[in-house]
Amino acid sequence: MKKMLRFILFMSILGIILLILELLLIQAPNMNVIESLLDTNFEIIEEKNDTIDVIFLGDSLVYSSISPMEIWNEYGYTSFDCAEAAQIIPNAYKYLEFAIKTQHPKIVVMEANVIFRDPNKRDLKYDISYFAKKIAPIRQYHDYWKKYIDFGSKENWVNVNKGFRYIVDIKPSKNKKYMKKTKKYNDIPKENISYLDDIIKLCNENDIKLVLVSLPTQVAWKYKKHNTTDKIAKENNLDFIDFNLLDLGIDWEKETKDSGEHLNLYGAKKVSSYLGKYLKDTKMLIDHREDSKYDDWHKAYKEYSKE
Amino acid sequence: MSYFDPIYIFFAVPILLIIYNLVPKKVRPILLLLFSFGLFIFISKWLTLFLILSIVSIYFIGIFLDKLNKKRDLLIQDNPDNKKEIKEKYKKYKKLVLILGILINVSFLFFFKYLNFFATNTNLLLNLFKINYQLKVAKYIAPIGISFYTLEALSYILDVYNEKIEADKNIIRVSLYLSFFPQIMEGPIARYSDTASDLYAGNKVTYNNFCSGYQRILYGFFKKLLIADRLNFLVSTVFDNYASYSGATAALSVIGYTIMLYMEFSGTMDIVIGTGEFFGIKIPENFRQPFFAKNISEFWTRWHISLGLWFKDYIFYPVSLSKSMKKLTLKARNLMGNRFGPLVSGAIALFAVWFLNGLWHGAGYTFLFYGMYQFILILLGNIFEPTINNICKKIKINRQNKIYRVFQSIKMTFFVFIGELFFRATSVKAGFGMLKKIFTNFHLISTFKSGEFLKIGLDGKDYVVIFIALIVVFIISLLKEKNHNIREEINQKNICIKWIIYYLLILSIIIFGAYGFGYLPVDPIYADF
Amino acid sequence: MERLIEILEELQPDVDFRTTENLIDGRYLDSLTILSLVAEIEEEFGVEIPTVEIIPSNFNSAKSIWALIKRLEE
User: Fold this and answer.
1) Which is more confidently placed, B406 or B392?
2) What is the DSSP letter of B401?
3) Which one of A84, A95, B38, B102 is at 20 to 30 Å from B213 when CA atoms are compared?
4) Chain B residues touching residue A152 (CB < 8 angstroms)
């Protein structure tokens, strides 16, 4: 019993020390408070302030279908995949909120699958780590001790893939036909509607054009989802591009890495090229390829094309 | 999945400890087995079947061998005159059974790890001779830790064969020996006599075991998170693209890789052994301050000890002391004298050991090259030992002198760096390319001025953290080398000092650890072997 | 016993084999030296040392090596 008490005392003192340290770290100079409890790495923070034109929000479909480097090479627009596996809409909101602290994108493209994903149904591991982060947020920003000491900063390190996952594996799909037409609608979890409204509001407040897309997948997208998304887009006066109904000429025998669920690099090139053209047609963006401020992007493309 | 996953070590394991203490003593080994299999299935899914096949095979082979031993002894008792004949006859039987057991287990290993390499090379040969036939090349994902548990399985049947141990009639104990959860990913390759009885004892987890287990585990976290994971980005960036960097940066990454490998592997062993301590199970040590060794041969008795011992006991001595080798030794001694004569059979056995050791790490030419490199270094060391001894005597250098010892260790470490360079290199050719760059294109000052050291994922503060953490590890190692039992000494201190040490350890891991935002998670290195 | 010490001293001149009790654990005899030692012993004393007997506890001191030889002679 005495040992039990001793253990509890040890842990309590540890807790108090951690709390004090957290307070100290949060006050670190130039701290971007990361209040959110996401599992993602927020890669976008590595980008120079105010250099990103377009943000892509969404789940694994985004980071396997949209390659910002392809868009850069073809049109000179800067974009970033702010995506995480099985993203839920509250996290999409938080990621966007985080991204616009350092960036002022003109267009945000959101992948529509996140609207349908139930935010309460994530696996146990996610719940546990969520809980761990909630009781010990220091895990998220322990590295901010560096901000108190000023020497030997990292030389500019360029993120090459800009959130895209470069995968050239091929695993063909046998499925020829999908997207069977229907008039049914897909249900949306109730709270997702209010999150969607929040995202629309956030975009409006920041003069951002919000676009909804569905990205090519034979598994995760259904015609019912198209109907629902189409309805939402019309109600809110948003553009909606359904890549699953467009004929991009995607070869499901060669351009998917996992039998039709996600595209690989070859499929992603087609999607990125189409999206680039769409972005051009909005006439809201400038080609930065001649601008020396964006030299890093040329450097990154050089690395990217080497891969 | 990694043992460093906080959910595993600070959540799943403590829950296991509580349940373990609540259930009756007899159920505890079964609980450990269930948890071990649960973890195995979680990582390797249906491939767990191969683990089960290995367990079942060695269990029955063991019992079979034991029966043959008993029958032989009975027969000898009845006919003491035919002792030799009976012995010979049964030795043959036993050998057949043993070979069957070895074949079963080695074939699984071969299928998962070497078939691919074998097929690729056969195809190259077929091409060379213009034979129009190609073997199918397919890479299969192997069950986790197959290289480790297969060696354990072989040691068990070999020990029964050699009558070092008796075969176990309890299949739960045999299963636990092969699958005990802390050991499945990176070993150590324990012997049956090391762990089996402790595993089955079902001793209660005491408060002292709990504290001392976590003490060791936290030290492992310190090494892994402060040092190894911090170096990860540097190592992979430079090794995968060494041509873009200067020789100084390449040298830094080579040193970094050796340090990283040591910190990651020995840190994992701290977790493994610490987890064993909870249950009062003494898992054998796998490292003993390797960088204090005076030559490569000694290095290998201090680094990955359990693997070295395995090769020594089951390959080196059996090969070098086999009948035909003994004959060879006799001949060689007549020709070359007593000093070098035995080296001939020794060299052949050593070659076998290092060829297999290289292959064990993976099917690839870099690993084979690495094995041959160690073989040549050890052999040369042995051949020149008398010469060096004579030279030292002539120029009056005392080889027990401290300065000479430090010089020896530094020289040894240098050779280790080069070995690990090839171990990690993307190909043997790339390894030589890197080596050439280091020796012909070093450019330390210009590299420093160009800021290249800060372009490879580490900032100045990271270098400082690594440096300080290395000093801490160095001091602890030095004390251990001087036979201090540091853990015991800390436990003897009064509670205030003890707690301050623990708090410093925990906080340094939480704050200065290389994890989370801005760091890539690092896969365990040795689990791939 | 004297003959054994002589053999040992021939192999490793710098070690005091009468008092040292950790020949293996202290790395005074490495595995290649053990091979020479085994060959010498087998020739000198007419015994055969099986591989299972090559364990540290049998080779850690001159005394234990001697005991092993005596045991094998029986």
Assistant:
1) B406
2) S
3) B38
4) 454, 459-461, 463
